[in-house]
Write a structure and sequence with these properties.
Blueprint lengths: L2 E4 L2 E4 L1 E4 L13 H13 L4 E3 L8 H9 L8 E6 L6 H15 L6 E4 L13 H13 L6 E4 L3 H10 L4 E5 L13 E5 L28 H21 L3 H10 L4 E5 L4 H9 L7 H15 L13
Length: 307
């Protein structure tokens, strides 16, 4: 599998996403299936597993930690401190709770989930939050520092305050933010929340995808037209559209794909995408097909949430 550097860490380009395992904001999630998906990712060679304290109030962290307890020294755990807990003292408390949830003595990559002030949270100086993270790193509680859902200006500000190793933002064929030059981009929702795997809705009540702009109106119509073209290319390469989309993404330098899975079969399929080679011509064609969707998107957020 292709490898990516995140600070002093080395990870495969496919990272196992843990949002779904938290169950909150999703429908029809089963803990046993989530655990089986994590194990399937590990068996397929995935080495980094990403979660957050906000995923089900720590439930996602606990499912992940229990799933990989016996192989902890062979994997990397990434988690995130909530936008609610960015004051220095709360950062420390949140880190300790995440360590307990994960059943580990260190967090390999600790990230700010959303900038302070998001969703009506307290406005905390970035210097205060990053100062606390740097101290946790010096204590050996965390090994690398990342930010998530930061704009280019916010990332630049963070880099001026402390060493930042990664940026985790939504990025896919159907939703493109910016690609930082200074740090690794951890692309979340790399399958556009299942749209690039052929899931177009409607979704059950409580599923966050019901508020995803890509699943409505002209965005969805353009995506469905693009999917028709992508299916033909995927068939030529004897892979799925999901694998094609992931392979296109991880061919980008300094980019890894944080992709969730509901089942072991999905995890195995996703992991295999990290070993697929695509020639430059195919990469260019796939990218242009995706651009037919993204060039018509003018919203800054993939969901209709109030920040």
């Amino acid at each position: 599998m292709r490898e990516v550097r995140i600070g002093s860490l080395t990870t495969g380009a496919i990272v196992a996403g843990g949002w779904q395992a938290g169950r909150e904001d999703w429908a029809g999630i089963d803990d046993a299936e989530s655990a089986a998906a994590f194990r399937a990712y590990f068996d397929a060679g995935v080495t980094m597993f990403d979660t957050a304290e906000e995923y089900g109030a720590g439930h996602g962290e606990r499912v992940l930690g229990q799933s990989l307890r016996d192989v902890r020294d062979q994997v990397l755990f990434a988690t995130k401190v909530s936008w609610r807990n960015l004051a220095a003292g709360k950062v420390v408390e949140a880190c300790e709770q995440s360590l307990r949830n994960l059943g580990t003595d260190r967090i390999d990559l600790y990230q700010i989930h959303w900038p302070a002030g998001t969703f009506g949270s307290p406005v905390v100086p970035l210097e205060e939050t990053l100062g606390a993270l740097v101290r946790l790193k010096e204590q050996g509680k965390i090994r690398a520092i990342g930010v998530s859902n930061f704009s280019a200006d916010q990332l630049a500000r963070a880099l001026s305050v402390a060493p930042i190793d990664s940026l985790q933002n939504p990025f896919s064929l159907f939703w493109r933010t910016y690609e930082p030059e200074e740090v690794c981009l951890m692309a979340y929702s790399p399958l556009a929340q299942g749209l690039l795997a052929g899931r177009t809705g409607p979704f059950e009540p409580g599923d966050n995808r019901s508020g995803n702009r890509l699943f409505a109106g002209m965005h969805l119509a353009r995506a469905e037209a693009a999917l028709k073209q992508l299916r033909e290319i995927a068939a030529e390469h004897r892979i799925t559209v999901a694998q094609l989309a992931l392979a296109w993404l991880v061919h980008h330098p300094r980019v890894c794909a944080v992709v969730g899975a509901r089942t072991a079969a999905q995890a195995t399929e996703n992991a295999a995408a990290g070993r697929i080679d695509l020639d430059p011509a195919t990469l260019a064609v796939v990218g242009e097909i995706g651009r037919s969707v993204t060039e018509e998107i003018h919203e800054k957020l993939m969901w209709d949430w109030e920040l």
